[in-house]
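Trying the structure run again after the queue cleared.
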Amino acid sequence: MLVDEFDYYLPEELIAQKPAEKRDTSRLLVVHRNSGALEHKHFFQLGDWIEPGDLLVFNDTRVIPARLWGRREPGGGRTEVLLLNDLDGERWEALVRPGKKVRPGQILSFVKESGPGQVSVPWGEALLQAEVEEKADFGGRILRFNRQGEDLRRAIRTLGEMPLPPYIKEKLNDQERYQTVYARHEGSAAAPTAGLHFTPDLLAKLKQQGINTAFLTLHVGLGTFRPVKTERIEEHKMHAEFYQIGAELAAAVEKTRAAGKRVIAVGTTATRALESAARDDGTIIPGRGWTEIFIYPGYKFKVIDGLITNFHLPRSTLLMLVSALAGRELILSAYAEAVQRRYRFFSFGDAMLII
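Done. Tokens:
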């Protein structure tokens, strides 16, 4: 299939620049796969379409301040680093800019910026340094830091910035609005944005309705947001992302399926983790690992029966994933109606329920 088949028109003013005032007041477009019907609601009404005994599966990853500003030593230029994958507590895979000037063997010093290009302490007093060990796939670098484990994570929390997507131009005053209310395990370079709509009150209400919940962890990285640059989607290669699924979730999925109820993933990242860990019969293999799964039309889902998701960028792997579940024509039709009705798009935008 051609990447061009997943393009659509989006006015720039529909790209949400800030979160809704209250998380669950976002609009909700309900897409019925079998009939093709579309319903326009609000997210706090989600329980009207989820039945008692259904299972909602959430990604409980937590976004780290993954953007660091550094300088190439000795006395080199400014360098931007986006941390992607924690390899062993000391070494990280990262994207760097300008990539051509960051070579293996170089030392990078990192400080807190007080403004664009302005540093709070002299470079010689840098709290954190890293050696560029080698080049990585997709233009990245492997960095070995001079700190390890929690000591390194504390330094990253001190120096780093929340890595908002480039299409968000406005400053986010409350950094927790780019975290889900149930985020627990640090490691993501981006938020699992479908979960941003949930509030503690809504979660409690769903539980009172007899709707079950379970959690997995997938640390969002380049695999989720890397653009497709090939002409045909089959030629695109996903970047690996770390996931972890416990025995409790595996048992919950098996129990739900045995009862004839639905497994509904909250977000494309939860979907990819579930499908990566699934046997052909839909049972889940607990454990941890790396996934490079690329889901596009023609894929046969093993686990999920429904999906809660945001509206995704044109020509993106995420748009291809939702098209695999609901059909490309139905999804593009739903997107066209969402544009017509002035829905808000992307990370801080409105939501879609596919059932």
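The mean pLDDT is 94. Worth checking whether this holds up in the mutant runs.
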